[in-house]
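pinging the channel bc i need a second pair of eyes. not urgent but kinda urgent?? the chain im working w is below, pasted from the shared doc
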Amino acid sequence: MVTTLQKDFMKTRTFVISCALICLGTITALGQDGATGTIKGKVRVERGTPEGIVVVLRQGEREVSRTTASKKGDFVISRVPPGVYGVSFRKPGLSVGAIDNIEVRAGKTRVLGDRLILPLDQGSLAYIRGSVFTVDGLSAPGIRVELAQVLGDGSLKKLDARVSDATGQFVFRMPPDVATYRLSLKADGAEPASTDIAVDGAAVYRKALTIKRK
């Protein structure tokens, strides 16, 4: 028969063992974190958003870890064993970027800053090429053409602008992400005009616009 004293002793022993296990786990975790370092930084892009850029940590050609940049381009790679590493940055439509000879020390955070800017990959871009004509079918040079992205709620995000050349032509380049864009004509003494273009990959998209004088 178990006495009250024995029950109290068993409860106390269980409590002490639980506390010891918790403390041991905490000390182990702190020891692991203290024996590793952290890499953090920010990547920017020539055009578009840095969200979704894959950040790969490597030693030589061997991949050690990877993460994904936030909407603002921020990234953090934690629990990196001490050593010298390289970091690569990849996203469709952008040129591959890299930072090498990054030394990581135990218990330290290596800050890479925000100087890395990924330009557009010329080999995998979407191009919008167009021409501006008068109602008589003649080329219309010197006409301002504005490019905006049509967002999911129907609002517009202005991106860029061009002026049609001597033959009435213009061109825009952008990442090959799936999106809808709007071209708008702006000219003194002319009626405003616009047209939408759906982009779904790296290709050349052509559009002809007609300017109507008031």
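so Residues 15-31 have pLDDT under 50 and may be disordered. and The CA atoms of residues 58 and 64 lie 5 Å apart. — does that match what u expected or am i reading it wrong
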